[in-house]
């Protein structure tokens, strides 16, 4: 396997799984709404759906679609050998799910975080989870949106 591709994949995976933890002010009485952001490239398509109340994110769903060639492999078995150990690290946490659907030429990864349930301290050390600011009051939609837009995502209407 080509080392630069593997290194690049893990850098991209790190960003995508970033979950964009950012501090926010206490929530308001707003009703839940959602916003969707997408980033498309030949290496990966990422769609992030944030469900929020006021500025507080209460749920996040990230879907990554990636051809096996982006991992430097050609088969489902080769991709599983690389990705299954990563998937295993996300299992067993209430409020956090991560699954991969291995298809013929690509895989689809879905990561969901229910911020009303998840213990952020328990998932803090999972590779790819990054925190920015004090998350004790929750995750800020505004700061997450700013970070996504700065990194090439567009809001999907």
Q: Helix and strand layout, with pairings?
A:
Blueprint: H1 3-16, E1 21-22, E2 33-40, E3 45-53, E4 56-67, H2 76-89, E5 96-102, E6 106-114, H3 120-123, E7 131-132, E8 139-140, H4 141-150, E9 154-156
Parallel strand pairs: 1-7
Antiparallel strand pairs: 2-3, 2-9, 3-4, 4-6, 4-8, 5-6
Query: What does the largest sheet look like?
Result: 7 strands, antiparallel
**Termini gap:** 39 Å
Oligomeric nature of the chains: single chain
Order of helices and strands: HEEEEHEEHEEHE
| Shape annotation | globular
Strand content: 25-35%
- The percentage helix is 25-40%
Poorly predicted spans: 10-28
Number of helices: 4
Q: Give the number of DSSP strands.
A: 9
Give the mean pLDDT. Answer: 83
Rg, rounded, reads 16 Å
Overall SS class? alpha+beta
Detailed description of the structure:
- With 157 residues, the chain is of the alpha+beta class.
- Helices cover 27% and strands 34% of the residues.
- The protein has helices at residues 3-16, 76-89, 120-123, 141-150, and strands spanning 21-22, 33-40, 45-53, 56-67, 96-102, 106-114, 131-132, 139-140, 154-156.
- The strands form two sheets. Strands 2, 3, 4, 5, 6, 8 and 9 form a seven-stranded antiparallel beta sheet that branches.
- The chain is globular, with a radius of gyration of 16 Å.
- Residues 10-28 have low confidence and may be disordered.
């Amino acid at each position: 396997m080509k080392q630069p591709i593997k290194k690049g994949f893990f850098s991209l995976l790190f960003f995508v799984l970033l979950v964009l933890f950012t501090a926010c002010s206490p929530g308001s009485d707003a009703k839940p709404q959602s916003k969707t952001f997408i980033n498309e490239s030949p290496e990966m398509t990422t769609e992030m759906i944030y469900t929020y109340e006021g500025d507080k994110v209460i749920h996040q769903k990230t879907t990554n679609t990636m051809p096996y060639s982006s991992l430097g492999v050609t088969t489902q078995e080769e991709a599983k050998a690389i990705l299954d150990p990563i998937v295993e690290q996300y299992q067993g946490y209430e409020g956090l799910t991560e699954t991969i659907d291995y298809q013929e030429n690509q895989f689809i990864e879905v990561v969901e975080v229910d911020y009303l349930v998840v213990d952020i301290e328990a998932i803090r050390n999972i590779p790819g989870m990054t925190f920015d600011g004090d998350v004790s009051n929750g995750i800020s939609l505004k700061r997450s949106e700013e970070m996504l837009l700065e990194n090439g995502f567009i809001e999907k209407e």
